[in-house]
Amino acid sequence: MKIVKAAEFTVEIDQRNEQLIDLDFDRNVLTIINDVRMNGDVALHMYTEKFDGVTLENFIVTDDEFDEAYTLVSETFISSLLKAKQRITDFHVEQKERSWFIRQEKGVVLGQQVTPIERTGIYVPGGKAAYPSTVLMNAIPAKIAGVSHIAIATPPQPDGKVNPHVLVAAKETGVECVYKVGGAQAIAAMAYGTETVRKVMKITGPGNAYVARAKKWVFGDVGIDMIAGPSEICVLADETANAAFAAADLLSQAEHDERAAAICVTTSELFAGELMTEVEMRLSDMERREIASRSISDFGRIIVVESMNEAIEVLNKIAPEHLQIMVDNPMATLPYIRNAGAIFIGPFSPEALGDYMAGPNHTLPTSGTAAFSSALGVNDFMKKSSIIHYTEEALKEVADDIIVLAEAERLTGHAESIRMRKGEAE
Amino acid sequence: MKIVKAAEFTVEIDQRNEQLIDLDFDRNVLTIINDVRMNGDVALHMYTEKFDGVTLENFIVTDDEFDEAYTLVSETFISSLLKAKQRITDFHVEQKERSWFIRQEKGVVLGQQVTPIERTGIYVPGGKAAYPSTVLMNAIPAKIAGVSHIAIATPPQPDGKVNPHVLVAAKETGVECVYKVGGAQAIAAMAYGTETVRKVMKITGPGNAYVARAKKWVFGDVGIDMIAGPSEICVLADETANAAFAAADLLSQAEHDERAAAICVTTSELFAGELMTEVEMRLSDMERREIASRSISDFGRIIVVESMNEAIEVLNKIAPEHLQIMVDNPMATLPYIRNAGAIFIGPFSPEALGDYMAGPNHTLPTSGTAAFSSALGVNDFMKKSSIIHYTEEALKEVADDIIVLAEAERLTGHAESIRMRKGEAE
Fold this sequence. Notes:
Two copies of one chain form a homodimer.
Chain A: E1 2-5, H1 6-14, H2 23-39, H3 41-52, H4 63-72, H5 75-93, E2 100-105, E3 108-116, E4 119-123, H6 132-145, E5 149-153, H7 164-172, E6 177-179, H8 183-192, E7 202-204, H9 209-218, E8 223-224, E9 232-237, H10 243-254, E10 261-266, H11 269-283, H12 289-299, E11 301-304, H13 308-318, E12 322-326, E13 342-345, H14 351-356, E14 382-390, H15 392-408, H16 412-425
Parallel strand pairs in A: 1-11, 4-5, 4-7, 5-6, 7-8, 9-10, 9-12, 10-11, 12-13
Antiparallel strand pairs in A: 2-3, 3-14
Helix pairs in contact in A: 2-3, 2-8, 2-9, 3-8, 4-7, 5-6, 5-7, 6-7, 8-9, 10-11, 10-12, 15-16
């Protein structure tokens, strides 16, 4: 953990995206994508053997495997999962946009028809850990949107199975189909379809560098949610904040990933010192201390600022994924926060609450992308069609203007399609 | 124009995305992007000389150039432009989402705070034609969203100027700054900033293959609207439709681009024949007949179907950018249309109306992407922050569930951040 001044830190933020793009990495990813497009299941089998070290007869999780999963998880887990499902559902139903129509003047009806995406795919990372919460946070908004076919792709464990917590979460949220396929090959399979994997229209969910890059490549042929970078937390604290709470929250972020960033912006030098001590102390007790210490030493920062105004400017520049406001009268700062994925207000709203249970989505814009993007939500699984209806008279009102503009763009065929209707109208 | 059966055509649609990705093209685009990132304005000068054939002293359009632009366009043009601006504004204000808060139970406040993106860039194609309507359709929603700095990048003409229609549209919609820079170099400059070009957080607007590819590469570091492919129109017609109208509308799409697709789906074989005749007849009178005939012969299709149900299935599979419904009782079909960028209802709602004047955005999902994406809108220039506030008591209610879920994911630091608050609460 390093204590720095705002000015120093601002330079670090500006350098955040300074890494130039590397085509060699893309070549590897593209080889996999093209192979899956051309060879379908054969390619999937090959990559699954190569990367996951398993030979699978069938990529689709069977009913028996789902049944088995229920015997492998605790009652307590299922009960907590269902409680989380309920809360996430309650929040997300509020997001659902409706179709609307307006009559703007005589003979003009305009509107927006909102419809669900038909089929979507969720990538759920596997490997060392299992993420049932990823299933909830992706499948629930898709379900509320009205998506009719939700599939999951997740890498198989060495025994050829999928983690039972993930399977139970999939079943409880109405996922249609779970494929035991991981990596770039899973993204390609869902984007283009194979004999076994059904093509979807959109792919969401986190993943490693291969998954992220594959999503970038298939983007345009299918929709994607976002390119997730390393995750971060930012705590805004004044002298009234509880340093032990703040330290625990910073460390909960740090344990995710060595590249995760835990940042505190504070108006109090005294608090900065206390926090530093708390972080160092708690770090040594952590189960995942190797990952967390790496993150804290490389990206952990305590930024001491002169005033709350300066603090807010720094925060808006960071555009953190998670922002915890631990100051006196935290609600008062809200109108000044422009860039943040999720804002946690007060000492009893830690990030972990939002990761699992609060209701809002935990899929948030990382690495400063909160400056231009938002949490995953119901709208990411819907799309809008504009509706335009003009009567003959209404068109006549604007016909000459359309012709003028079309001709300024030298699109005379456009002008003609209006002119002929005007003729008829006379 | 080719008359085909639905089954035949469905195969064509499935092959729409079959082209495999080509890394050599990306290498060229990346060279430009990296060069601009490393060398800033020097690189911009070099590429502008190379691709646009002009040496510019200054990339920024001056006040004098804006003044001159007003002397070069007609009064009629300005008046039609302002009328379009008004109508586009009237529609888009209806789209603006508001922040909201809900109190879901004792001690729990959740919400969504909606804020504008701070700075955005619009790419406006130059070359042979000028597109003031592109300026309207991008700048107006950005302005309504509350974006504080809107910039345009557009390639200079051979005389080093920008088309006056574009400049007038920029001025009238409150664009802050117009840069005379085009191609992939313009996208890189707006994404990363140079000495002259200010970095933005999001880039929207159409462009050639280089521009589209550059947008795909910078996506993630900045937001982008969509990867625009060739544009298309689909007319749904029964025996009551006016073949001359339909033909003119198909041709208005065909004149855009040789790769544009003009498609009619009809339940009437008789109408198919009439339409064929009308298209061929009108084609020869068109100013842009070279482009249009190429489009019509390569991608023009009349699909004859057995029933309205079959027609709608085919349409949903095509997911057209523009859908014109020219059947008896067109409104009745609306609830069955799942995938379309914009839906034009009835004989007096041609595509050209929507391109300039109806109100809804003309930046629409192309090449089947309407299956998972939407027209550009005000929301594309805003982002949402989730709001989470729990009191001590409210957190206590869910603390054990969070701990169970965090431990199922082996994120014990997350569990600890909750456990210590529970301790405090007891």
